[in-house]
Write a structure and sequence with these properties.
The protein contains 18 helices and two strands. Strands 1-2 form a two-stranded antiparallel sheet. Strand 1 and strand 2 form a beta hairpin. The chain starts with a helix and ends in a 5-residue tail after the last helix.
């Protein structure tokens, strides 16, 4: 448990115990936080609570990535295989304990709640763009990378849906606000042995995700360094292992140290909005490159299936707006209530969505007028909408990171970019 979660949970527990002195009746997360805070050692009166397992896992993964891509590939394959076996076991066993009445209401927070959830867990899809950073180590990247991404996307989507159905069918959704909901569900049904296996598999799953992150980030920095956007040191390869040594070490430090203290939800939300923004840039980049395909000096080495936005985008908008009106008309009308615009505490949370509406109108207008390709336009609009669902707090944190990146670019990258030489 991290420091912030323990402190917050301890406060909740104290408030609860002033009314009810029985600690056994505390909610699960508050009880764990209370015990962690109470039993934590102190240095100069400051509680020392650090997620040592998370720190250790990141360090071990960073060492593995540093050693080489082959070792990383073997370890990744093993972790993915173990993860798939556990997930299939969960689906097969859990299906016998599904209670259909737990699915009622099926979407308690409506379409808006579903999309907020999608935005919140979008960090899980960061691995798909991280795959592209291994292009140099592929035998046939133009053929292998698209196939691997599409296959992985299909497989994981099916597994996500099945796991969600089984989990919410076993235990009512209102009880799943815990750190490891799968293990909790099986423990509640007295399947303790299987619960322990699932808890271990959660570590394996997170390790597999971290492995992809730690492979991708150093190679992104390596590519940026080769373009002059970062110092040359970031693209230096290890003489023996042929991996970006300095980039790998820096990535390990920047992930391992915050893992000791930071709250998981805050980290995943920030990761999600960063991932969505990366997808926005990719979709916009496809439009820019597609617009320059007739330029003899600029010939993109890929093709995106073309559908004329002038004919198809209005139809898409009509379907979307009709679905929102008929499936979530209460949410549609509540957005335009006067209190949402005169009360700052409420209005500030509406700002990301209002900005999305403005940007979406501009993009749609330009796409129709200039006959942009429909697929990247839909990518832009979809990812921008999901970003708007992550709340003003995440946007402020994201803007801080974006500002830091822009400062680095304008004070170093822009001057040293090879495009300017």
């Amino acid at each position: 448990m991290d420091f912030l979660s323990a402190k917050r949970g301890y406060g909740e527990a104290i408030n609860y115990l002033t009314v009810n002195a029985d600690i056994s009746q505390l909610p699960y997360h508050a009880k764990q936080a209370f015990l962690a805070w109470n039993n934590a050692p102190e240095i100069f009166g400051i509680k020392v609570i650090a997620d040592i397992p998370a720190f250790t896992i990141v360090v071990l993964i960073s060492v593995l990535v540093y050693r080489g891509i082959y070792e990383t590939k073997v370890a990744g394959n093993i972790l993915v295989l173990l993860k798939l076996i556990i997930l299939l076991l969960v689906i097969a066993v859990g299906a016998f304990y599904v209670q259909p009445h737990n699915w009622s209401p099926f979407a308690p927070n409506g379409i808006g709640g579903v999309l907020k959830g999608v935005a919140g867990v979008f960090f899980a899809y960061i691995g798909f763009d991280a795959i592209s950073t291994t292009a140099e180590e592929c035998k046939n990247p133009q053929k292998d990378l698209p196939r691997s991404m599409i296959y992985a996307l299909l497989i994981t989507t099916v597994l996500y849906v099945l796991i969600s159905l089984v989990l919410t069918g076993m235990v009512h959704y209102s009880e799943l606000g815990v750190g490891d909901p799968l293990a909790y569900a099986f423990e509640k049904l007295n399947l303790n042995k299987l619960s322990g296996i699932i808890a271990v598999s959660a570590i394996i799953a997170m390790a597999g995700v971290l492995l992809v992150f730690q492979v991708g980030q150093p190679r992104i920095w390596m590519s940026m360094s080769r373009d002059g956007l970062l110092p040359q040191r970031f693209s230096n390869l290890h003489p023996k292992y042929k991996t970006p040594k300095f980039s790998t070490i820096i990535a390990g430090v920047l992930v391992a140290v915050p893992a000791l203290f930071m709250n998981l939800t805050e980290v995943t939300d920030l990761t999600s909005i960063g991932t969505l923004f990366a997808f926005v840039l990719v979709s916009g980049g496809v439009l820019v490159m597609d617009a320059g395909k007739n330029n003899q000096q600029f010939k993109p080495k890929f093709k995106v299936y073309y559908l004329n936005s002038r004919y198809f985008l209005p139809i898409v908008w009509l379907i979307v707006l009709s679905s929102i009106y008929f499936l979530n008309n209460e949410g549609f009308y509540s957005f335009f209530e006067k209190r949402n615009f005169i009360n700052w505490d409420i209005f500030k949370h509406q700002i990301p969505f209002l900005l999305f509406l403005i940007v979406a109108f501009i993009i749609s207008f330009m796409a129709i007028v200039k006959k942009y390709s429909l697929i990247p336009v839909l990518g832009l609009l979809t990812n921008l909408y999901l970003m708007s669902e992550l709340g003003i707090t995440n946007w402020l944190r994201f803007l801080i990171w974006l500002t830091i990146g822009l400062i680095l670019y304008f004070f170093y990258g822009k001057k040293h970019s090879k495009l300017n030489i």
